[in-house]
Design a protein that fits this description.
Helix content of chain A: under 10%
Order of helices and strands of chain B: EEEEEEEEEEEE
Oligomer: heterodimer
Largest sheet of chain B: 6 strands, mixed
Chain lengths: 117, 115
């Protein structure tokens, strides 16, 4: 594919609803990252996959946030019982394998803007 | 933990003016340093990078030098254009350890260039 794609681009949810955000990485990219970008802030790390394995989920802000990548390609970020403070842009990025001592560029998708009313 | 502190904006300049956006970092080991740019309506794009001390990253007329002694990675451009108007983010990633792979971003600096 041409790049990282995310859907939906915009999502409005009522407080308490569950939402699911999708990320399609660049073909062949084994590493996939999720970031949260609040208004006027820089992106903050949420979680990271290498293939289907979730190697780091230390950035997830609460147990309402859950991410999966069951076949090592498409990933879904799920937020249960959404709260107003969850309103943000959720960014997905993919790269070749993460390797100690060498940086493989992360390519970012356009993001999903989530607004919780 | 690792972090990036970035000059607060917004920054407003006239076309052809000189640009500096300051960035300092805190990290253990030898992180890689980056500048990302977000143009209006578009996703984050890597602008330039430097992976070791004294390296200079450059792209599209922008430059930044990895200064370990001052833990800085300031972004510069000698003559800005209207098309450079965007939000610029300084970022780092560790070269090893439990946080390997994740990017740490500054809060971003909005640059507006007037003709």
């Amino acid at each position: 594919g041409a790049g990282v794609s995310q859907s939906p681009r915009y999502k409005v949810a009522k407080r308490g609803q569950d939402v699911a955000l999708r990320c399609d990485p660049i073909s062949g990219h084994v590493s996939l990252f999720w970031y949260q970008q609040a208004l006027g802030q820089g992106p903050e790390f949420l979680t990271y996959f290498q293939n289907e394995a979730q190697l780091d989920k230390s950035g997830l802000p609460s147990d309402r946030f859950f991410a999966e990548r069951p076949e090592g390609s498409v990933s879904t970020l799920k937020i249960q019982r959404t709260q107003q403070e969850d309103s943000a842009v959720y960014l997905c990025a993919s790269s070749l394998a993460v390797t100690s001592g060498y940086y493989n560029e992360q390519f970012f998708g356009p993001g999903t803007r989530l607004t919780v009313l | 933990g690792d972090s990036v502190t970035q000059m607060e904006g917004p920054v407003t300049l006239s076309e052809e003016a000189f640009l500096t956006i300051n960035c300092t970092y805190t990290a253990t080991g030898y992180p890689s340093l980056f500048w990302y740019v977000q143009y209006p309506g578009e996703g984050l794009q890597l602008l330039l990078k430097a992976t070791k001390a004294d390296d200079k990253g450059s792209n599209k007329g922008f430059e930044a030098t990895y200064r370990k002694e001052t833990t800085s990675f300031h972004l510069e451009k000698g003559s800005v254009q209207v098309s450079d108007s965007a939000v610029y983010f300084c970022a780092l990633t560790a070269d090893r350890g439990s946080t390997l792979g994740r990017l740490y971003f500054g809060r971003g600096t909005q640059l507006t260039v007037w003709p």
